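Bump. Still looking for HXXEE domain-containing protein structure tokens.
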Amino acid sequence: MLQRLIAHWVYGTACCAVLLLVLSPALLAGAGPIFIAAFLHLPAYMLHQVEEHDRDRFRLFFNATLGHGLEVLSPAAVFVTNVPVVWGLLAVALLGTRGDAGWALLSAYLVLVNGAVHLAHAIAFRSYNPGLVTALVVFFPLGATTAAMVQRAGAGSLSWHLAGLGTAVAVHAAIIVHVRRRAAALRRA
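Sorry for the wait, here they are.
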């Protein structure tokens, strides 16, 4: 069963994103604008994940381009990165935003850094990469708007910006470390 979940998680993601958006008026009734913005990062990220991972596009593309044909990104690594790590960080940021609006910067930087990585990859390879459209159309406006809202509310201290940016960079750096280790192991084998 776990293998099926790892292989097909993205299809449930599409349904979850739509359900969260449909339920958002009821779930967010009375919530402040920063909490609403932080909440919207989850369904936005889910829609991005559908663009990225439908038919295993991102993993196959990543392995072909950055892995040079090696399976440096496995289905399990994709699942762990996207479900417990990304959804978990977005959930922590959302829950934290209830007490301090600065937590919303974690969500904002997570989408902004991911968008920047997609854009850099598109420029470097001069081609589309799975996830690029939602990164440009959804992530940049949502992340920038959220960061601006937090700043205007006076909750955007330097430490919150550094924590948000640092966490987002750390997630992407962890992926790179994993990929390099896996590539080295595959080359040795």
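The chain has seven helices and no strands.

Edit: fixed formatting.
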